[in-house]
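User:
Can I borrow your eye for a moment on a structure tokenisation matter? Would you put together a sequence-and-structure record for a protein of your own picking? Please set it down just below, with no commentary around it:
AI:
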Amino acid sequence: MGFEAWQQYRSVHTPAFDVVAQGEYNSDVHMEVSVSHDKDDGLSGEATIYNLAEDKWTQLSEGDPFRIELGYRGEITKPVIFGEVGTKQPGQVDGADTAYKFSGADESEKRIKEVRETESWEEPTVDFIARDLARLADLRPGRITVPGGVIGDSWSISQQSTLDHWFDRIVEEAEDLGDEKYEWYATRGQVNVVPKAEDVGAQIDVLTEDKQGNVLDSGEVEGKEKKSDGGSNVEVEALLDPQIEKDALVPIRTEKINGVYRIVNYSLTSSTENGDHEMELEAAPTDSEYRYQPAGQQTDAGIARPY
């Protein structure tokens, strides 16, 4: 199967331009994007757009927001970074093409810590307020896993504090309603409010190397510094899944690996130039279990989506 048939989707959005390439190869749209998460350096991304109109490129400035979305047309697409342009390079001639490149770090949490708003709610739930707080920061609600129930006749915020203070307050409200401890974090343009003891993060499809699987290569990470308490960390190269994120649990089933692992680091690459639409990840073993069924059938841990 050629890469065109996979209906790859990739898009880059900035205040100056929007570039989208999806489905079969389009000679008018050329781009290469990469996004990586490192446990020490956080989430960052880079985009190279070929043959963009010069006037559009000049309108982009360092400090402007940008968003990269990846996935598969007709299946699933997700934002993989919500960043701020840190560096912008002049157009570079590359054969018959001109390449325009910029890069930057994810700014989701920074946005939460900068925005000040005034708002009030009548007889609200924790879930409702958390989602509204995300929107006030121009971010999307992600996983909001909190107890139900009204938290009072009214609830309000003011510009005396930035939104991170109000998210801290909403976490306290959630803890008052239930028996668990909660936390919030922002990444990839989304805000999540979840229990600290949550066993499963994002729902990641089973990574498998069967005939309809998505794993390209796998193995243990070499070097003693990569050993976790539960055994060796593993490295996996696979077809891209836009749901991947830090600390997510993912079942891996290959000839060399079989178990549920927690994501430590990952990188995503997608290119119209060579058809790459892949991810590489490092993951640590966990005690979680899963039950595998053939591709396309629901499992306890996810779905082995046939690519």
User: Anything to note?
Assistant: The helical segments are 54-59, 108-114, 126-136, 163-177.
